[in-house]
Amino acid sequence: MSDEAFTRVVGCLLDVSGSMRKALEAGRSDEHAVERLVAVLRAALKVAQAEHRHDPGALVFVGLFGLDTDTKPGCPSGVDLFSVTETLVDDDSNHRSGHERLIALANDENRPNITKYIREKLTDVDARIVHAYLQRHEELKSDFLDNIPPPEEWERKRKEGQTTARKLGFAGGCAFGFMVGPLGMALGASIGAALGGPVGDIVVDKVEDGCVHNSEALRLAHRICDEWLADFVELTPRPVADVIKQLQRLQERIDNESENTLLRTLRRYLYGRTPMRDILARSSAVFREYSTAKQGVLLLVSDGFSTDGDPLPQVRELRQHSPEVTIATVYLSSDGDAAKRRIYDQPDTHWNNGQRMLFSMASKVSINTHPIPVLATIGWEIPSSGSGALYATVCSAAALEEFCSMLVSARFGVADTLLDIVGRLPLDKYINDEHVRTCRRPSDQGGRKTCYAHAAAAVIHMALVRIVGRVGGYPSIEEIRRRILDSFPPGPDGRRAKDVLEKATPWYPPLRFREVDEDGARQAVLRRRPVLATFYLSEQGWEAFSKHFTTNGTNKVPLTRAKMAMYRSLPHGGGHAVVLTGCEPLSLTLLNSWGKNWGDRGRFSIEDHTVLELDDATGATRMRFYDVYWLEDDLKDAEKKAFDDEVDRKLRDKAEKYPSLLELDARCPHCCQDSPIAKFRGSIRESVCPRCGMTFKPESCHLLRALYARAGFGDAE
């Protein structure tokens, strides 16, 4: 298949090796032991559905690896799941069971007597496997059928058995009658001869059963059931629509089977060794084959323990040959305490080697550009560094679905649009404000020291515009600044930002503020909250600061602690107030008010907060951060309604552009059933469930779950 028509390839690798038994079965040995395997397969379906909504032309493959090659001779270590399901699950037009298929094959070759043995000696799934295998391997069909004795042979054996039994019965009856007299002898001979026929049938049936049980045909059938998976070792990307159809059929089959016959059949092939290097090498070959695809995703669900060597070289090779591929890893655990709904930027000290391995394999992404904040909205912890690995430790099916769906929806391209429902400040207005842009250096005694008022006004305005339909409107930066300057006219050294915020935030309810450290400041900006930052430098420090950010070649480079170290011990030469707007693992980005031609289009970056500090035992000149925020409980009813109305409008607009959004599932909190959004009546304020008819108010986080994660989720553990 040519890869030129496809822009994206998505692969899922599911570890079903022996070390995963506990995680997949969660300590259960009864018929429900495969429920977590069902959850993993359901997560694969969610990923495929999300991918289809985003890119209907995408290709998807799913591989199972870690099959039992030790006790199942001929069984491969890994297979393509969709090739397997094609064998196990019918299309909708053919509802014949596996028994019926194999019996029909026997009847076509005049072997009707084998019917009862097909039903008695093979399960329905086994019969389906044998039938499908013989259809693919025509050369073995005759081996199977020719080793089933023809009906005339069984009829001859039956007659011989009946004749022999009658003779034995006659002789036995005579012997019995001889002991009781002439009359008894005649009666015994008649009864013995009469019973000899049925006894002969029983004998022949036993002989026939033994012959069938030990026949080459049945031995071949059992060998096929051990080796049939070897036909499906090649990972084959398929159109995502076909993948969804196959997984849905598999899910329906599982749901409709009260005894989970299908999954119990699959289960007997699971729990072998963990050939992670091998499956990664085969996945890498797939991505190389489809090298013209613009994007690729490889999702690995495992415990990270490989039995065929270190998998990291395979990962490095994959990244080298296919740099467009994003790798995400999931550590599936049965330990609820170990599972954290959290994105990590570095390994946790309590992790085992498997978790560390999976973390090392995962791609690292910027939290600013990747919609990981969506996970934060629904309760996931995100790192303050501004970067994280696409790795998660999960225990519940819901958390697994959240992470997998986020991975795919990360490339949907509408995250910024939907987050902008809460509003944004046009940054050009802050950067280029003529009132303060001439004050290039805070230590310049010829300028008014009003940066505190401008920065405070900016963060207050930024916080207010996040309230949709705010009662009282949105005062401009200029308006807020004038009010601040009226109450806090500039002094010789400006004003303390904390004093300004303490008085100014109550002017504009429901605003609040709190002083935070660098970590708290990072968490705030990652959640799109404005943060006011203040710092002090010495006279020489200001010179170095100004030179660094006004010189081509360094103006876009973060200022380092080492470069400013020599100026830390000097007397302070003035302070400044700016707005923190972003963070990366090794830097903070701040917004200045000195015009677009300064720094990097009005912004500047520093290594960390210690760059812009002076040595001071009192702590008076250390860098400080102030998080300006509001709480949902403090919003007025009209403001909450305005937000709901805005979300409704955005949803309608997006649904016109992306009709498939209406296919997203939402969950009713009453009946806990999922239904497409299009089937709910009402609005975001009051929706009516199409299943139970109950009314409820959808939470905004539920909308984010539906819009970003593409599916309804239950509560994660």
TrEMBL record:
<dbReference type="InterPro" id="IPR038765">
    <property type="entry name" value="Papain-like_cys_pep_sf"/>
</dbReference>
<protein>
    <recommendedName>
        <fullName>VWFA domain-containing protein</fullName>
    </recommendedName>
</protein>
<dbReference type="InterPro" id="IPR036465">
    <property type="entry name" value="vWFA_dom_sf"/>
</dbReference>
